[in-house]
Design a protein that fits this description.
- The complex is a heterodimer of chains A (146) and B (698).
- Chain A has 146 residues and is an alpha+beta fold.
- Chain A has a single domain, classed as Immunoglobulin-like (Sandwich), CATH 2.60.40.
- Helices cover 17% and strands 40% of the residues of chain A.
- A five-stranded mixed sheet of chain A has the order 3-9-8-5-6, with no helix packed on it. Chain A has a four-stranded mixed sheet with strand order 2-1-4-7, with no helix packed on it.
- The N terminus of chain A is likely disordered.
- With 698 residues, chain B is α+β, with helices and mostly antiparallel strands.
- Chain B has four domains: 195 residues; 95 residues, 2-Layer Sandwich (Beta-Lactamase); 166 residues, Beta-Lactamase (2-Layer Sandwich); 181 residues, Alpha-Beta Plaits (2-Layer Sandwich), CATH 3.30.70.
- Helices cover 54% and strands 16% of the residues of chain B.
- In chain B, strands 13-15-16-14-17-18 form a six-stranded mixed sheet, sandwiched between helices. In chain B, strands 4-3-7-6-5 form a five-stranded antiparallel sheet, sandwiched between helices. A five-stranded antiparallel sheet of chain B has the order 9-8-12-11-10.
- In chain B, a hairpin with a 6-residue loop joins strand 8 and strand 9.
- In chain B, helix 2 packs antiparallel against helix 3, helix 7 runs parallel beside helix 10 and helix 16 packs across helix 17.
- The two termini of chain B are 133 Å apart.
- The C terminus of chain B is likely disordered.
- Classes of the chains: A alpha+beta (146), B alpha+beta (698).
- At the A-B interface, loops of A face helix 3 and helix 4 of B.
Chain lengths: 146, 698
């Protein structure tokens, strides 16, 4: 007499399939933010980007502050010229650029590594630190999105 | 260190002291460490604060430097070089240590230890470079040289050609770095303070935990010791009381057990309710430091009294007790035994004295007297009497009464109507009103009473009863009953003995056949008469031909004849006359205050009465008499011999007659007897045949 597979076996088979599918679907999302990871290194008083030409879509800037000062990171869509400054003549007018800013990481001490996920459209984007004198001291980088 | 397991029963081990010391030491160490840490971190914070000040000051100095540069450039008076120098020196001192210079009008010189943290050091290095760039740019600015020509050592990349802007950017960067340095140093101070707080909390917590453990150990040890002591005290049958100020502070469980009262009903003044009222004063006195040893009585659960021997320890000055500790044990049995022994000794003493006194009583009256005195010794309050039966043992008569309290006057008449006599043992009546009381106790003149009746007997024969009464419902106690019993037994023994002795005495003095006194007794009486110089007549009587009578009619008839003669003699004689059977068929009669002539008359009356008496009987016999009196001789011996001569003459002259012999005749008779070896030969001289002479004398 042939032995039929039991209902329990069938049920666990279905369950396994579901779990496996779910795991595959969520895999990328849980391990890191979706999108391309671009390493951004901040130091006194320079910002360097691992890739300056990016494809449009979600981009994750992984900001490494190597110090020694604390730095912030602001990503702003730009038309290529210099960013408009505030009345002090030294810091970028963030309020005026509010529409263009796509992402901000507040100031963090040396040694911090943070990620900033942004959705980039084709165009130019400036990455800068707007702490007093830092932008004018050279902390600016540009990426081009195609 | 914390919980040392007890390795045995050691309730007195001073473990608690070590534990207390450990707790104190732990607290002291924790507090000292905490205080030291606090002082250290506070001084460090203060130091840090001044460093933060110096670090923060750099911002101001950098901005002031630029202002002063612009002022000088505009023709104003300022000393940017001085500010620049302050900036440079401060930056160097912050990095490597030293004394930060004072800023005039702002602060004083500050000692700075130099930075060791690599992150802050990196920032300070950055600051130093920026300060250098700023000062060089400033110098170029003051000198009017283009700033773009100034080499910048910092990693800044300033692209603007505007000199003022370049200066401002450099100042801003310097300021920014200075701010960051100050923030870092402040944050680290915060962290230090925080960690110090955490450390202090940890220390405090650890101290508390250790102390709690030690305290727990202390409590456990104390509890164990307390339990040990409690078990010692609880399992002990000794009674423990703590008294203070007339109150009881503590009682052990054994006191509850003894008294059957719960502890709340014992502490305070209530304790004295269960102490015998006669002993309360002694116990109170002991509490005031009186005696250290006392015996007191306590009422037990069933209402009886227990004697407690107490040892008193004065712990009023011991602040743990503040009272007097009474440690007592039950000695009731011992006290009872001692009391019993004392009473026994008293009884024994009473009994032995009584026995001695009674031994000295050689007559019954003397014994009665002893009993009388013994009664007064037993009780001076209880009426008491000794009722004795007479010789017929049919009547009870009062023989002795308590001289101190009189006799109760029991109306009992015969020994056998006395219940105590019938029972043969002492009877105690609680009350004459009781149903089972002796009816003879009722309706006494003194009203209802209690009574004790102790029978008196000797050799199993009842002699009477010893009777005493007491208040109604309170009969004489066991002690008195014991003494009464002793008295009854000893008095019975003595009175019985005396009576038996008197009877024996009487028997010894009396001739069994005739009931007359015997020869010795009469001789004693004669001597007594002679002593008192009482004149008296003496007659010797002899039944005629008695031998013949015996041979003819038998000895029984002979005996009867003797009894008949005795009876007749007693009938005729006066009451104080004496008659004794002298031996065989001879009788001696003594008539005090009579002379021979009177005696002859009396003897003749006897002869006549005898003749009258025997006439009715079938055996006829006569009697011959020899009479004399005390005037005729000096000794009794001589008198009897005279009477004997008279009798001899009566016989020889035909019998059944009375002859008075005078001394002359007696002398003849003596002479004849001496010559012929006896009285018989005198007769032989008068009557030739010897056998006939014998016959004549019988």
């Amino acid at each position: 007499m042939l032995r039929r597979p039991s209902r329990a076996w069938a049920a666990s088979g279905v369950l396994l399939t579901v779990v496996a599918t779910a795991a595959a679907g969520c895999g990328g999302g849980t391990s890191s933010p979706p999108g391309r990871v671009v390493d951004v290194t901040e130091r006194d008083f320079r910002i360097s980007v691992s890739e300056t030409h990016l494809r449009a879509g979600t981009v994750v800037f992984r900001a490494h502050n190597v110090g020694p000062d604390a730095h912030e990171l602001i990503v702003v869509r730009t038309d290529g010229g210099r960013l408009r400054l505030r009345a002090d003549g030294m810091t970028v007018d963030e309020e005026g650029l509010r529409r263009s800013i796509v992402g901000t990481l507040e100031a963090a001490n040396a040694g911090a590594v943070r990620e900033l996920s942004v959705r980039l459209r084709p165009g130019r984007y400036a990455l800068f630190c707007n702490m007093s004198g830092h932008y004018m001291g050279g902390m600016e980088a540009t990426v081009v999105v195609a | 260190m914390i919980a040392v397991r007890a390795s045995g029963f050691t309730p007195f081990a001073p473990r608690t002291r070590a534990t207390v010391v450990a707790i104190v030491v732990t607290f002291a160490l924790a507090s000292a460490a905490s205080a030291a840490l606090s002082i250290w971190s506070t001084s460090k914070s203060r130091n840090r604060a001044s460093i933060v000040e110096v670090a923060a000051r750099q911002r101001t100095l950098a901005e002031r430097y630029v202002e002063q540069l612009l002022l000088v450039r505009g023709g104003g008076a300022a000393d940017p070089a001085r500010t620049g120098e302050l900036l440079r020196q401060s930056a160097a001192v912050l990095l490597d240590g030293g004394v930060a210079p004072a800023v005039e009008g702002d602060d004083d010189e500050t000692a700075v230890p130099g930075e060791r943290d690599p992150v802050i050091r990196a920032q300070l290095v950055e600051q130093q470079r920026l300060v250098g760039d700023l000062i060089r740019s400033g110098a170029a600015f003051v000198a009017g040289r283009p700033l773009t020509s100034v080499h910048l050592e910092g990693r800044e990349r300033i692209t603007t050609p505007n000199d003022v802007l370049r200066l401002r950017i450099l100042a801003a960067l310097t300021s920014n770095v200075a701010f960051d340095v100050a923030r870092h140093i402040a944050a680290r101070t915060d962290a230090n303070v925080t960690s110090s707080i955490v450390l202090q909390l940890a220390l405090g917590g650890a101290g508390i935990v250790v102390s709690i453990l030690l305290a727990w150990a202390l409590v456990a040890t104390t509890r164990r010791q307390t339990a040990h002591f409690r078990s010692l005290v609880t399992s002990s049958t000794d009674l423990v009381l703590v008294l203070a100020g007339g109150r009881c502070l503590y009682t052990s469980a054994s006191v509850e057990k003894l008294t059957g009262r719960a502890r709340p009903d014992l502490v305070g003044r209530a304790i004295f309710e269960v102490v015998h009222e006669d002993d309360r004063a002694a116990l109170r006195a002991a509490e005031d430091g009186g005696s250290t040893r006392l015996v007191f009585r306590m009422r037990n659960a069933s209402g009886g009294w227990r004697s407690l021997e107490a040892h008193v320890t004065d712990l009023r000055h011991d602040r743990h007790v503040r009272g007097v500790v009474v440690n007592a044990r039950d000695v009731t049995e011992r006290v009872q035994l001692e009391g019993e022994l004392t009473r026994q000794a008293q009884r024994d003493s009473f009994a032995s004295q009584l026995v001695e006194a009674l031994e000295m009583a050689d007559e019954e009256a003397a014994a009665h007297d002893v009993v009388t005195r013994a009664m007064a010794e037993i009780s001076t309050e209880s009426p008491m009497e000794l009722l004795l039966s007479d010789s017929s043992r049919a009547h009870l008569e009062q023989a002795a009464v308590n001289p101190a309290a009189g006799g109760p006057g029991c109306p009992v008449e015969s020994p056998f109507s006395c219940v105590a006599v019938r029972r043969g043992s002492a009877v105690v009546f609680e009350s004459s009103d009781a149903l089972n009381a002796c009816p003879k106790l009722r309706d006494r003149p003194g009203g209802a009473c209690s009574a004790v009746c102790v029978p008196i007997s000797f050799m199993g024969r009842s002699l009477g009863v010893l009777h005493t009464t007491g208040p109604n419902g309170a009969p004489p106690d066991a002690e008195q009953v014991g003494r009464l019993t002793t008295l009854a037994a000893q008095a019975g023994a003595r009175i019985g003995t005396v009576r038996a002795f008197e009877r024996t005495q009487l028997q010894a003095q009396t001739d069994a056949l005739t009931g007359l006194i015997n020869r010795r007794t009469l001789e004693g009486e004669l001597r007594r008469l002679q002593r008192h110089s009482t004149p008296f007549a003496l007659a010797l009587a002899d039944l005629d031909r008695f031998k013949q009578l015996n041979d003819t009619h038998g000895h029984e008839e002979g005996d009867r004849s003797l009894r008949v003669f005795s009876h007749v003699v007693r009938q005729v004689l006066r009451s104080d006359d004496l008659v004794a059977r002298w031996g065989g068929e001879e009788f001696l009669l003594a008539l005090p205050h009579s002379d021979a002539g009177e005696a002859v008359d009396v003897m003749n009356r006897i002869r006549a009465a005898l003749a009258e008496t025997v006439r009715a009987g079938h055996v006829q016999f006569t009697v011959s008499f020899g009479v004399t009196d005390s005037t005729r001789a000096t000794t009794i011996q001589e008198l009897i011999q005279l009477a004997d001569v008279g009798l001899y003459l009566s016989k020889t002259h035909g019998r059944d007659r009375v002859t008075v012999a005078d001394p002359l005749q007696a002398a003849d008779a003596r002479r004849n007897r001496n010559g012929n070896g006896g009285l018989g030969l005198v007769a032989a001289a008068l009557h030739p045949p010897e056998d006939e002479a014998e016959e004549a004398l019988s």
